[in-house]
């Protein structure tokens, strides 16, 4: 499967990003304080609900929990009626650009930059309104959208951007059409490179430059392709990508900027090479064996995993064939990683099928096969926030996420019920999330 998106290059340069009427404008005059009365705070670390209490948000922080929280005159007051106040959800593996349109639409020359910009903005807004207040974007032209969200010009979650994926020639990020020849030999960048989707980089020097280009644009972490993939045309699943020296180049450049490299990899060989190179996070890993999982646990390497959905009607026969062993590996990976105490994070990794984005919350429920509701809720809030924090000073937002405590950032959801007792509540945010707050601003929920 190839991505040929050169006619969208203006998006990558930030020329087009559609802003539209949204609750952002309505919130500009909102009071600086919000008081949640009579709520039960979900302690995701203990896995329990606290007694009924009040929670005061001042500015973008949780200012007080309990009787000490005295709201100023004119504050927004929300009667929680004994409902659950929990941290905002976090998805650590999204591709907002690639997940916003169908694959044929992305390849269609008639699809304008404005259409893609609108689709990305709509995807980001719906993600926030599903309760996902923070995400890690793991590849694609995301910087213009992130800037627009942070500036209040459009709605969306906090974004930890990777920028263009870094891939070897013939790797998982080589999106060229058959007619597009190598930039290195023929001097012309591929359309996907111009678009900002990928850097095709071979050799230590090119990998260094690609990594530094992403860091220059504001990447909070670097995404490197270390093995074959299911949605790419040229690389079988079993292949290992990038030499140790090339991979070390990316790690050294990221380390100099006090952040880290995450790699796309499924196989033990690819993952072991990445670990030896100093990579700190493995994306996917469904084909890993137990010795490699044990190695990850000993070295403190993060596993950012997904419980990938079964094949859908929109998938090509080639992609279905490549996915077969990956889908089967879901059931082995999660319990094995849990057993050995690997640092685990969760994400969705939805691509080219925007109709599936609405399942983002429901995909969390698949984790119940291996984890208790308390463990699931901790993973998709606090644990995922710890992975975001791995970006260190390159973290784009100062403050603590994934927990409701005094001083933490005010990314909060008021849930109609107890998700510890009924985890299914989080799968229907339209019905069960009565208030969604990000950075102290209410994006869903009546004010009074």
Main sheet?
A: 8 strands, mixed
Based on helices, strands and strand pairing, what is the structural class?
Answer: alpha/beta
Q: Count the helices. How many?
A: 14
The CATH class name of the largest domain reads Alpha Beta
From the alpha-carbon coordinates, what is the Rg to the nearest angstrom?
21 Å
The low-confidence runs, each spanning 5 or more residues with pLDDT under 50, are 1-27
Return the domain count.
2
Give the helix proportion (percent range): 25-40%
Could you say which overall geometry the principal axes of the C-alpha atoms support? globular
Beta-strand content: 15-25%
Termini, distance in Å?
A: 51 Å
Protein name: Amidohydrolase family protein
Organism: Afipia massiliensis
Keywords: Signal
GO molecular function, one term: hydrolase activity, acting on carbon-nitrogen (but not peptide) bonds
Write the layout of secondary structure elements.
Elements: H1 9-12, H2 23-27, E1 33-43, E2 48-58, E3 61-65, E4 76-79, E5 84-87, E6 89-94, H3 103-107, H4 113-129, E7 132-137, H5 143-150, E8 158-161, E9 165-167, H6 183-186, H7 191-195, E10 198-200, H8 203-217, E11 222-225, H9 244-256, E12 261-265, H10 268-277, E13 281-284, H11 290-299, E14 302-305, H12 317-339, E15 343-346, H13 373-388, E16 412-415, H14 429-432, E17 433-438, E18 441-444
Parallel strand pairs: 1-4, 1-5, 6-7, 7-8, 9-10, 11-12, 12-13, 13-14, 14-15
Antiparallel strand pairs: 1-2, 2-3, 5-16, 16-17, 17-18
């Amino acid at each position: 499967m190839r991505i040929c998106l050169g006619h969208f290059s203006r998006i990558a340069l930030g020329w087009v990003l559609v802003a539209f009427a949204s609750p952002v404008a309505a919130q500009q005059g909102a009071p600086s304080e919000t008081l949640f009365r009579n709520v039960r705070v979900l302690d995701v670390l203990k896995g329990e609900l606290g007694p009924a209490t009040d929670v005061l948000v001042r500015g973008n922080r949780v200012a007080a929990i309990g009787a000490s929280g005295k709201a100023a005159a004119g504050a927004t007051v929300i009667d929680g009626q004994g409902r659950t106040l929990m941290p905002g959800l976090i998805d650590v593996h999204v591709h907002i650009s690639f997940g916003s349109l169908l694959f044929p639409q992305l390849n269609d020359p008639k699809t304008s930059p404005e259409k893609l910009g609108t689709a990305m903005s709509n995807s980001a807004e719906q993600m926030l309104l599903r309760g996902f207040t923070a995400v890690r974007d793991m590849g694609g032209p995301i910087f213009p959208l992130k800037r627009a969200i942070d500036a209040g010009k459009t709605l969306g979650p906090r974004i930890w951007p990777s920028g263009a994926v870094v891939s070897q020639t013939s790797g998982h990020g080589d999106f060229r059409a058959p007619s597009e020849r190598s930039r290195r030999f023929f001097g012309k960048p591929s359309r996907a490179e111009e678009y900002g989707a990928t850097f095709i980089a071979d050799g230590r020097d090119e990998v260094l430059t690609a990594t530094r280009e992403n860091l220059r644009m504001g990447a909070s972490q670097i995404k490197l392709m270390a093995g074959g993939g299911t949605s790419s045309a040229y690389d079988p699943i079993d292949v290992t990508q990038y030499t140790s020296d090339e991979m070390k180049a990316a790690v050294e450049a990221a380390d100099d900027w006090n952040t880290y490299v995450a790699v796309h990899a499924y196989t033990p060989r690819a993952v072991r090479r990445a670990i030896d190179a100093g990579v700190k996070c493995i994306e996917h890993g469904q084909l890993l064996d137990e010795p490699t999982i044990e190695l990850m646990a000993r070295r403190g390497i993060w596993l950012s995993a997904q419980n990938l959905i079964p094949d859908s009607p929109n998938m090509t026969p080639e992609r279905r064939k490549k996915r077969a062993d990956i889908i089967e590996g879901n059931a082995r990976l999660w319990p094995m990683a849990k057993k050995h105490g690997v640092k685990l994070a969760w994400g969705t990794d939805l691509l080219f099928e925007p109709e599936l984005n609405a399942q983002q919350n429901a995909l969390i429920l698949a984790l119940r096969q291996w984890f208790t509701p308390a463990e699931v809720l901790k993973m998709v809030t606090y644990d995922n926030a710890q992975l975001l924090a791995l970006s260190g000073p390159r973290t784009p937002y100062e403050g603590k996420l994934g927990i409701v405590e005094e001083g933490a950032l005010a990314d909060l959801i008021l849930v109609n019920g107890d998700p510890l007792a009924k985890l299914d509540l989080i799968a229907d945010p339209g019905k069960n999330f009565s208030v969604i707050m990000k950075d102290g601003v209410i994006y869903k929920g009546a004010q009074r």
